[in-house]
Specification:
The structure is a single chain. With 162 residues, the chain is mainly α. Helix 2 runs antiparallel to helix 3 and helix 4 runs antiparallel to helix 5. It is built from six helices and no strands. The model has no long low-confidence stretch (mean pLDDT 84). The two termini are 29 Å apart. It folds into two domains: 86 residues, no CATH class; 66 residues. The longest helix has 23 residues.
């Protein structure tokens, strides 16, 4: 698996590098993803400033991601130099991780959903061994439980059924 990821990431040195504005495609994709977060979070219910609803975190994250993606788009359109090729494998892994989170948290709970999300997002990283990915997933999922359920009190189930 590690060799496959390294081979997929190698670029042809003779190919003409893309212009920096090619990176704006990634910014546009992130902007679309931000809009999905905002709409999805709004449908879940944002709540009030005193008692945040389930959709508050996706909406806040979506707005932050939208602002950052607009900055990326503006910077890439202003830059006319050559740039590195986008890492589409990592981008796909992050998109898959977001889908895993959205599909699993309601069914199996926050802790296993966050664990699977971290594992999915870290798949393209050949420098982190599988044991490191498992440890990282465990730490992040426990931190999510402590923060979102323990401290903030969001109405997530730590563990759920299938």
């Amino acid at each position: 698996m590690k060799d496959l990821l390294l081979r997929l990431r190698k670029t042809d040195d003779e190919a003409r590098p893309p212009h920096a504005y090619f990176g704006a495609l990634g910014g546009i994709a992130l902007l679309i993803l931000a809009l999905v977060f905002i709409v999805g979070g709004y449908e879940l219910g944002v709540g009030t400033p005193r008692r945040l609803g389930t959709g508050a975190f996706p909406v806040i994250t979506g707005f932050i991601l939208a602002v950052l993606s607009l900055v990326v788009i503006a910077a890439d359109f202003r830059d006319t130099s050559d740039a590195e090729r986008p890492d589409w494998i990592s981008f796909a892994a992050i998109g898959a991780a977001l889908a895993v989170f959205a599909l699993t948290v309601g069914r199996i709970g926050l802790v296993p959903g966050a664990f699977l999300t971290v594992i999915t997002a870290s798949v393209p990283d050949p420098s982190l061994p599988i044991l490191g990915k498992i440890i990282l997933g465990a730490i992040v999922s426990l931190a999510c439980w402590a923060l979102f359920i323990g401290v903030i009190g969001l109405p997530f189930a730590a563990f759920g059924g299938l």
